[in-house]
Design a protein that fits this description.
Radius of gyration: 20 Å
GO molecular function, one term: protein-lysine N-methyltransferase activity
Subcellular location: Cytoplasm
Number of strands: 7
Structural class: alpha/beta
CATH topology: Rossmann fold
CATH superfamily: Vaccinia Virus protein VP39
Helix content: 25-40%
Main location: cytoplasm
Pfam family, one: N6-adenineMlase
Catalytic activity: L-lysyl-[protein] + 3 S-adenosyl-L-methionine = N(6),N(6),N(6)-trimethyl-L-lysyl-[protein] + 3 S-adenosyl-L-homocysteine + 3 H(+)
Length: about 210
């Protein structure tokens, strides 16, 4: 047979490849369909090279609800490196709060004026219209589990918040979180859409609904 020298995929590998392409087509089809919601989690996919790990839908919902309650009616919420919480807040189409997203990934510029380019290496390099202590609550998820990243992100958090802080980071950062932000670990265990190797926790500096 003339085809003998042509490499052939095993039936298992071929099926897996076909499934991958089908899922990809379905995702793209959802994105281009009339009913596509640009704010839904997964509308912008994780970029692991940017240390991005999206929360599970339940976790994003829980954190978004907590933020709305903590901010109060007419409150302002800032999401620092926590786009899946931002997306869940926007899904609610709430008129009793406003929200912005500070994010390094410029793909999130699709969200218009609510997107603020943010690089934790320059924690106070912020637009002039982001006034100090102008947010009722700041939710932050520093991209790296390092003291340097947390310390610099903490500068931004303390600049923006009127007082309330909701921090999401690794359990190993508990001591540093208390040191830099005065936050304490919550009972609530956040989950990600893909399991992380490191134990992840939430921290707050106010009486929250996460305990």
């Amino acid at each position: 047979d003339d085809d003998d020298d042509i490499p052939q995929l095993s039936s298992h590998a071929l099926a897996a490849l076909q499934e991958f392409y089908l899922e990809q087509q379905q995702r793209e089809g959802m994105k281009t369909s009339q009913g596509f919601n640009q704010y839904s989690i997964g509308s912008i996919e994780e970029d692991w090279q940017l240390s991005q790990f999206w929360y599970s839908d339940d976790t994003a919902s829980c954190l978004a609800k907590e933020a709305v309650v903590a901010a109060g009616k007419g409150g302002r919420i800032a999401c620092i490196s926590a786009p899946s919480v931002y997306q869940k807040l926007k899904e609610q189409d709430g008129k009793d709060f406003s929200v912005c997203i500070l994010e390094y990934d410029r793909r999130f510029s699709v969200y218009g004026e609510e997107f603020i380019f943010y690089d934790y290496n320059h924690p106070l390099n912020l637009p002039e219209n982001l006034l100090p202590h102008s947010f009722d609550i700041v939710i932050a998820d520093p991209p790296y589990l390092s003291d340097e990243c947390l310390q610099k992100t903490a500068e931004t958090i303390k600049y923006l918040t009127k007082g309330k802080i909701l921090l999401c980071t690794g359990a190993i950062m508990e001591e540093q979180a208390a040191k830099h932000l005065g936050v304490k670990i919550c009972k609530f265990i956040p989950k990600h859409s893909r399991n992380l190797a490191n134990e992840f926790r939430c921290y707050v500096n106010y009486a929250s609904g996460l305990d």
